[in-house]
Each structure stands twice: as C-alpha cells, then as structure tokens.
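Case study.
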Amino acid sequence: MMEQYLEIKAANPGLLLFYRMGDFYELFFEDAEIASRALGIMLTKRGKHQGMDIPMCGVPVERSDDYLHRLIAQGHRVAVCEQMEDPAAARARGNKSVVRRDVVRLVTPGTLTEDTLLDARANNYLLAIARTRGSAGAGRIGLAWIDISTSEFTVTECATGELAATLSRINPNEVIVTDALYGDPDLGPSLRELPAVTPLTRDVFDSSTAERRLCDYFAVATMDGLSAMSRLEATAAAAAVTYIDRTQVGRRPPLSPPAREAAGTTMAIDPATRANLELTRTLAGERRGSLLDAIDCTVTSAGSRLLAQRLAAPLTDGAAIVRRLDAIAAFVADPVARDELRTTLRAAPDMSRALARLSVGRGGPRDLAGLRDGILAADQALARLAMMELAPQEIAAVMEALRRPSRELAREFERALSEQLPLIKRDGGFVREGYEGELDEARNLRDASRLVVASMQARYADDTGVKGLKIRHNNVLGYFVEVTAQHGEKLMAPPLNATFIHRQTLAGQIRFTTSELGEIEAKIANAGDRALGLELEIFERLCALAIAASDDLRAAAHAFAILDVATALAKVAVDDNYVRPEVDTSLGFAIEGGRHPVVEQALRRDGQPFIANACDLSPLPPPYPPPQTGEGKVGAGQIWLITGPNMAGKSTFLRQNALIALMAQAGSFVPASRARIGIVDRLFSRVGAADDLARGRSTFMVEMVETAVILNQASERSLVILDEIGRGTATFDGLSIAWAAIEHLHEANRCRALFATHYHELTALSAKLPRMFNATVRVKEWQGDVVFLHEVLPGSADRSYGIQVAKLAGLPAPVIARAKSVLAKLEAQDRGQTARALADDLPLFAVPSRASAEPAPPSEAEKMFEAVKALHPDEMSPREALEALYALKAKLPKQ
Ligand code: ADP
Ligand code: MG
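After joint prediction, the assembly is written out as follows.
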C-alpha cells in the first residue's frame, strides 16, 4: 500500500495528498505534519518506512469539506485520492492486492466549485499571466482569468507597469505563472507576495500549442469563432484552461467563450489607491466599513458579486455608464416595481454556481431545484418588468435574457423533483412519485416488503405465543427477530428451533433470524438498490438537460445579477438621497452637496449629521457653472490645497470626492445634490506616512515611491488625491517635497487634484500657480477649545490647532501648557514669513528644467542659516561674539 501511496504522491508534487482509506482521508509523512499543525488534529503513526515511524493523520470523509476549506484558506493545495473499486473486488484478486486508487481532483484556491468552500458574495478567480518568451524588456503581459464556479472567462493585455493595478482590480484567488516569471528579478518579488501563486512548467504557457489547447477545451475546430485574441492573451487563456483540466482530472466545467477586455475601458486604480479608498475592504482588511459594504443592498449573491466587480472596475465609456444609470433611474422612479422585483430576486437561487457544480459532477438535487426556481422567478420578473412604463436599454437586454431558458425544462424539473430534497443524491428520495413507472414499482416493492415484515412480526408473535416478539433492523445483522432472554429458551427448543436460527445473545435479549426473513430482506435490499439506481439515472438525465441549456441559463443568471444591482443601487439612492451624476468627456469636476458615503452612514447611526461640501476642480473657464455652497460660493481651480486643523475633515473631503467620481463611473448614483464629472482615466490616492511595516519598507520610503508613481503617470484626465504627503520626514524636507510636488502637478501633469496639508506655508503658492485654489475646513475657537464645523470654504488656515486636539485627546495639562509655550517660541521665528519669502524668491517650477541637476542658489534664509551654523560661541571672546552679532544683523535684508 505504501508503494502505491508513494507513487501517487510523487505524481502530485507540491500538493497535500488526501489518501482515501475507508471512511477517512489519511495523510502521511510531511503532509501529515503540515496538516496536523494547520488543522489542529492529532498526529499518530502507522507502520515504518526505511526503519522510521511514518507520521499519519486523518480527516473523516463526511467532514472533509470543512478541513479542505481551512487548508485552502491557509494557502495549501490538496490532491484528493479516492478508492476506485470496492475493497471486496481487490480481495477477490488475491489477498495481497491493494485497492485501486486514483487522484480524482486537485483542490486549489482558484478552482473551487463547492458552496461550502466559496464565498457566495465574491468571485473566485484563477488567473494566468503570460509574457512573451525571452524578451524581458518587451513589456507586454497577457492575462486570462476564469471563475469556474460561474463560468466567467476574460482575457486582456497590459503593459508590465500596469500589472500590479490590473491584478489588484481582478483580485484573483490563485495565480499561475511560468517558473521563469516566478523567478524573474523584476516581476518575481511582487508576484511572490500574492496570496496563492503556482509556478508551472513552460509547456503550459507554450504559445505554439495555445490555440490547439483552447480549441480542444471548447471542442471547436478553430478559435476564430470564440474571439479575436492576441497571441499573449491566447497563451494565458490556454494556460488557464490547461490548469483547470489538470485540477478537475477529466471533468471539464463549461466556460463562457473568453471575453476580451480592451485596454483603457476601465478607470485605472492602482493597489495603493484601492486600499486607501477602502473600496471593497477597509485598511484593516474587513468588508464592514468599506464602500462596497455601505452601498451593497443586493439580495442575491450573484448580484453582490457583480456589484463588487463594477466597483472594482469603473468604466471610462460615457455611453456604457449612461446605460447603467438609466436602469437605476427607472427603478428610482418606480418604487413599487423595485420592491416587487427585489422580492422576486430574493427567491432566485445562485443559478450559475448551481450549474457549475452540476457540470463537474458535484451537484445535488437541490441544484436542479435551484435551476427550476430560477426559471420560474424569471417569468415572475418578466411579468413585473413588462408593467414598467419605460424600459431602458439595460432592462430591455435583461428581459431578453430572462426569456431565453426553456420553460419546458422548468416544467420537467417540477414534474421530476419531490417537495423535500436531500442534500446529496445518494440519499435518494428526490424523484417525485408518479414521475416514472419503473421507479414507483421498485419503491412499491420495497415498501410492500416492509409491510410484509410488519405482518410477519404479528404472525411470529402468534405462532410462538411470545407477545413481546419484535422484528428489528440494524446494519450488522440486517433484519432479525428479538425476544427477551426469558423467552429465548423457548425459541431455541423444538419445535420452534426449526424456524428460528439463533444469531446473537445480549444481556437482556436474544436475537434470531429465519429463512423467510432472509428472503424478504434480500428483496427489500434489491428493491431499494434498484430504486436508488433508477433515481440516479434520472438525476443524470436531468443534469444533462441542464448542461445542454447552460448558455441560456447562464444568460438568465447574469440578467438576474444586473437586475439585482440596478434595483439595489436604486434603493440606496433613494434611502441615502443620492443623485444621478452627469458624466461627460470634459475635464470638469463640479460636486455640489457632496458627502462621504461611508462616514455619512456611520454618523447617521450615531444620530450625527454629515456636513455636505461642494468641490470644483473644473479648468478655467469652467465647463460648468460653479457649485454653490452655504453662504459663500466655492472657487474653482484644478488643484485644491486644503489646509485646516487635525480632525477638521480634510481626509474625509478628499476621499468623498474621489469616491463620488468612482461611483459615478461605476454607474451608480452618488452622495451629492449635484455632480458633474468629466470622465477620469486614472484615479490616484496617497496618504502621507501610511504604515507598511509588513513589507519592511520605511513609511517615508513608501510614501515617496507612491508619490513618484503619481508624478510620473498622472495625465490631464486623471484625478489625484494627496493627503498630507511629506509628513513622514523632517519639517523642511517634507515642506520642500510637498512644494515641488504641487508645482509638478500644476505644470507637468495638469491633472485635477486635491492636496491636504499641514504646511500652511504652501498656501503662498496660489499667488504663483493660477490654477491652484486654497480651501480650508472651518473651525471655531471657543473658550480655548476648538469646535469642528466640517465646512470647506475658500481661504487658508493659519494654524493646525494640534495642541487643542491633543487637549481633547486627554494629554496631561502640564504637557499641554509646555507645548503651548514651545509653540509660542517657535512661532516667534515665523516660519510662514520665510516661506512667503521663498515663494517670491524661487523661480517657478519649470517643466523642461526637471532634468537639470543644478541646485537652486541659496536663499537669504539659507545664507543666514549657514552663517549662524558657522559660529562657535565657546571659542569666541565676548568681543568677537558681539562683533559676530553685528555682522549677522547686517546680513538681514533691508526693510
Ligand atoms: P482630518 O483629515 O482633517 O484630520 P478627518 O477627515 O479624518 O479629518 O475627519 C475627522 C472626523 O471628523 C471624521 O472621522 C468624521 O467623523 C468627522 N467628519 C469629517 N468630515 C465631516 C463632515 N463633512 N461632516 C461631519 N463630520 C465629519
Ligand atoms: Mg487627515
């Protein structure tokens, strides 16, 4: 047996081997050690190998899903090895023969189908990365990603530099690459950081056989009909299907033909920006508190998955955005339709996942029922949609898709399936009585025989005169006659011992069998087996019907998801008072009454109002009339510099504007009273000194790396959010970097930007940069404390109120008092004065001079600073000291 084990183990390197032995999957050697640690189960031993004990641990087959789930979640991959024959058959071959076993499936994070292993609300993608061989510098990457639990299959191509952003958008659960790419000095390190990366041999990524492998998978003669993919895309696609083929060991989950995603059709959002804006997860890694969580009112898991996809990939095509918005608008206008459809949707099961399970042979009767209910729900939804007055394009497409699945299929399932369905098909009893004569017959025979057993009991009680005689059943003896010990003697003595054959004596009871009972038992078992066999046949037949209709069923499932998202976003829009954004191709950006969708909800739970704020980043002359706010009008400027004390609401304001743009382009209504947005091609968001200890980089380094990305990549069409950049270093360093960054954004990138800062000195820049605008968040000082009004107004803050905030936070009174006096001293030196002088002195950042390495000439302040630094008071006589003082004074600029 160990020989067989080692052979199978060697054929599946890198995977834990679940080796089936009776009711357990056993693990041996290192696998056992890994699994016992990962699962917290007992490590035992079994036999010896080369003189050493063999470590072993096992998981019961019934509960294996749970254990698999935990192993996969910890990044392991598992090969499931089953017994391929009855142990009796092996014994029949000779007493030394081992039961035939084979791996039936590889369980990896990216190739799951079981409900118990999947998150219902998230897609589960396997993603393949291909690169042209031997041309490390070519810079193009092909990507293909597949969710076998929903059949989605997409391919695209991107530049090497965009790989990180693309990966963070798709958020795959498993990535496959070539060994070479895995070890690549440039891309390797970031790839190896991904949660589950599987390096594979080169043949999987062989571009010359890619088309053949794809054709083979889809069982077509040529790939022309599938879609026009580039060579790189086809290579990645072929690698992905080859891997799926391997993991499913011969069962091919049906896939949609690969959809090709053209470059530039979605808003580019890099990983740092995604994390920072807390789109689908908070910085702490939780769903709760994310944008997705705040606006996800969907009622189906497929709807929830689609909404997550849309938020992760906002569109750049105005017409496509408008189509989504039209659908939401229709449901905002018709609350009755919205609510009734949501009720219908709630009853619509996850058809695409049910279908995927059925097609890889892991489905059950309830999956068939799911498809039946889905088709019935489609009729209901169609009836309701038909009553709506206006059917925008997206809804019309939904209706068309819902009409596709065959109603006859649903009726067939309805006729075939019973009311109560077992979870697994082997339990039987899921086919309705009257559906198939042969099955009814087998069942009747089985049940009639059971009745015969009951009447036999009465007859035996009569014949023997033992009133308490019972016929019972257990798995060891099958049917048997049972009497108390006291009556046992009687049955074992003539004449009764001719009929009753002794089987077992227990403490209080004695058990017998009879030949008649043996016959009837065989009949019952045969009829039962026959009934189950017939049921399983029917199951396979129904399953084949479903698979044959899978294109239509999938289309309907997708239509449900679209309907769910549209009605859910309409509900949020109504409940939270969102408006329809106006999206166009200008470079404008004007938000009135903007709010932060997540903070607003959190404050509402505490009974607090959220203060709405306007923002206008439109170029001059603006494409839109500027928004109004409160008492004053906001000004316009493509770069807003926002100063204001800690806790005033700067970060919230920055993020809310980014989120509004993102939501609008994802095709959602937005938390504002009016929003006009020229389509954003890339969104950037950075926070100063964000911790990234896990990756072992200094926080300031991270901040600068990320800032560099923005300054190098942001285009005129981009939207940039910089929150206290330069905070992670010494004051003058940070101020200088922030200063230069703003100039660069203004002169070189020319993008729309919001920049929050504590460096009040930076506000002086507005005098020189015509498209920069100063805004501040209002606070009120009241009896030495600061009151936050959260109102964004034109102007600049003159101080940070850090000490007041520290006081609110409960710093000890003596520390507060001391800080105040230190601050007074520092302020006497007037850093602001220096900066204003700087603004006057420094020539404006000039784009072409970016490359020139020549340092700027020292300013007056710097000359002064150098002069003081050169003095050594300890080595001076009093007279020299006095002279030095006069000399310094003389150096001051003339007033
Ligand atoms: P800053 O970045 O200026 O230090 P934050 O944006 O972090 O301030 O905001 C601090 C807190 O103030 C937030 O957690 C939120 O509770 C509250 N807040 C911010 N903006 C608003 C607003 N517009 N209306 C009401 N409360 C707000
Ligand atoms: Mg902040």
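Observations recorded in class. Residues 228 and 474 are 63 Å apart (CA to CA). The chain is about 45% helix and 20% strand. We will return to this complex in the next lecture.
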